């Protein structure tokens, strides 16, 4: 093993993150008008139940075929089957604490370490003033048949599993609120 | 079908601040109270966005984004993005944001009585070259007060955002300037473990200082690598 360099520590994004991290079309994982597009949105709450208006949500996901345009996918990098699909979404929370991304349903994935399949999901990073490091969670989508067999959901205590599942609130709309603390504290992951 | 499992990016201990750090008040209602669930790195984690977004012609030079030049000490900030295995991270997006020379952000929620500079917005982005190198031109940001406690002042800093090449390598941090007298009083700087804080401080570099133009600060950023001794660092 070669000599290791010590890592740079994390620090908070602070309250003025928009100056560096707000992208005009950041919330578009797919271009508007993409067939099959869905919108996932929600509100980020602090421990007093107050919406967080200086936060940032980032999402990362496979394309609808369950593939990544990335060389570290052992199945090989493939160009997304959806034109303009980025896999990555970014949304600053607004004056009401709301974030939102426009995307398409990700495909299921092989889990690699088990025979199980991972149900469609998005990895999520939450940044905000008051968070000295990002916190990580996952969005699963209500009604997906694979959710019951997903190995990550299975590792989460049953009574908290719902915090990882976005509710279907419209034809093509899902709602995923994030609670940093409290009775409904979202399950956060250490990856 | 059997697939080789990609090696995970490992997290060493004694690096990142605890999420609940009493000295920084805003952590009180925001740091999760339950321990995170430790999960294996699968395909979504060992991949990550390789995109760079749209880079404008002056995104690397924060002194040229307006008609006139901003006031303040012109500086360059440059260095390398590496992973802990010592490998450079090429072609990766580096985003920065900062206050102006007087310590004021061009943000509607920053309204302490220091002047705004009409020639300074304070946001920038670059992509590292094939050697993992980045470079910005900007002005040295001022210190600024904040409401955390009586007479609280942030040491001068530049916010940095990095992606690396995997979801697990994502990092947002702050770069500080050498020998700032405010280090001793700043809970955000001090939230990082002793021994790790110093890695956030840039070095003044005479060799790359440009005569009659700009002082040079150098700062290397190290993201998670794959060969690290696998210590877990649960957030308290
Ligand atoms: Fe700041």
TrEMBL record, chain A:
<keyword id="KW-0223">Dioxygenase</keyword>
<dbReference type="GO" id="GO:0018578">
    <property type="term" value="F:protocatechuate 3,4-dioxygenase activity"/>
</dbReference>
<dbReference type="InterPro" id="IPR000627">
    <property type="entry name" value="Intradiol_dOase_C"/>
</dbReference>
<keyword id="KW-0560">Oxidoreductase</keyword>
<dbReference type="InterPro" id="IPR012786">
    <property type="entry name" value="Protocat_dOase_a"/>
</dbReference>
<protein>
    <submittedName>
        <fullName>Protocatechuate 3,4-dioxygenase subunit alpha</fullName>
    </submittedName>
</protein>
<dbReference type="InterPro" id="IPR050770">
    <property type="entry name" value="Intradiol_RC_Dioxygenase"/>
</dbReference>
<dbReference type="InterPro" id="IPR015889">
    <property type="entry name" value="Intradiol_dOase_core"/>
</dbReference>
<comment type="similarity">
    <text>Belongs to the intradiol ring-cleavage dioxygenase family.</text>
</comment>
<dbReference type="Pfam" id="PF00775">
    <property type="entry name" value="Dioxygenase_C"/>
</dbReference>
<dbReference type="GO" id="GO:0008199">
    <property type="term" value="F:ferric iron binding"/>
</dbReference>
<feature type="domain" description="Intradiol ring-cleavage dioxygenases">
    <location>
        <begin position="32"/>
        <end position="182"/>
    </location>
</feature>
From TrEMBL, chain B:
<dbReference type="GO" id="GO:0019619">
    <property type="term" value="P:3,4-dihydroxybenzoate catabolic process"/>
</dbReference>
<dbReference type="GO" id="GO:0008199">
    <property type="term" value="F:ferric iron binding"/>
</dbReference>
<comment type="similarity">
    <text>Belongs to the intradiol ring-cleavage dioxygenase family.</text>
</comment>
<keyword id="KW-0223">Dioxygenase</keyword>
<dbReference type="InterPro" id="IPR000627">
    <property type="entry name" value="Intradiol_dOase_C"/>
</dbReference>
<keyword id="KW-0560">Oxidoreductase</keyword>
<dbReference type="InterPro" id="IPR024756">
    <property type="entry name" value="PCDO_beta_N"/>
</dbReference>
<dbReference type="InterPro" id="IPR015889">
    <property type="entry name" value="Intradiol_dOase_core"/>
</dbReference>
<feature type="domain" description="Intradiol ring-cleavage dioxygenases">
    <location>
        <begin position="77"/>
        <end position="105"/>
    </location>
</feature>
<dbReference type="InterPro" id="IPR012785">
    <property type="entry name" value="Protocat_dOase_b"/>
</dbReference>
<protein>
    <submittedName>
        <fullName>Protocatechuate 3,4-dioxygenase subunit beta</fullName>
    </submittedName>
</protein>
<dbReference type="InterPro" id="IPR050770">
    <property type="entry name" value="Intradiol_RC_Dioxygenase"/>
</dbReference>
<dbReference type="GO" id="GO:0018578">
    <property type="term" value="F:protocatechuate 3,4-dioxygenase activity"/>
</dbReference>
<dbReference type="Pfam" id="PF12391">
    <property type="entry name" value="PCDO_beta_N"/>
</dbReference>
<dbReference type="Pfam" id="PF00775">
    <property type="entry name" value="Dioxygenase_C"/>
</dbReference>
